[in-house]
Amino acid sequence: MNVILLTVFIGLILVSFFVIFFLHIRKDSLESGASRDSLMPLEEEGMRPAGKKQSKL
């Protein structure tokens, strides 16, 4: 009987962890779009937005 209670307890902890993680990811996905996310791997480290000139030192 103790094994069943332990299994249920661990299962509830795992379910709550995944629900919290899902809600966190869902909140972040509202701030960005699918097209932006799909282009992120192509973005270089030092890129600047178009129209801004680079100052030479």
How would you briefly describe this protein structure?
Helix content is about 60%, strand content about 0%.
Percent helix range: 55-70%
Global morphology: rod-shaped
Mean pLDDT: 78
Structural class: mainly alpha
Helix tally equals 2
Low-confidence stretches: none
Query: Can you write the helix and strand succession as a string?
Result: HH
Give the total of beta strands: 0
Sheet with the most strands?
Answer: none
> What is the subunit organization of this protein?
single chain
Strand content: under 5%
Give the distance, in angstroms, between the N- and C-terminal Cα atoms. Answer: 73 Å
Radius of gyration, CA atoms, in whole angstroms: 22 Å
Protein traits:
57 residues; mainly alpha
Strand and helix map with partners:
Layout: H1 2-29, H2 34-39
Commentary on this structure:
- The chain has a domain of 29 residues.
- It is an all-alpha fold and 57 residues long.
- The protein is built from two helices and no strands.
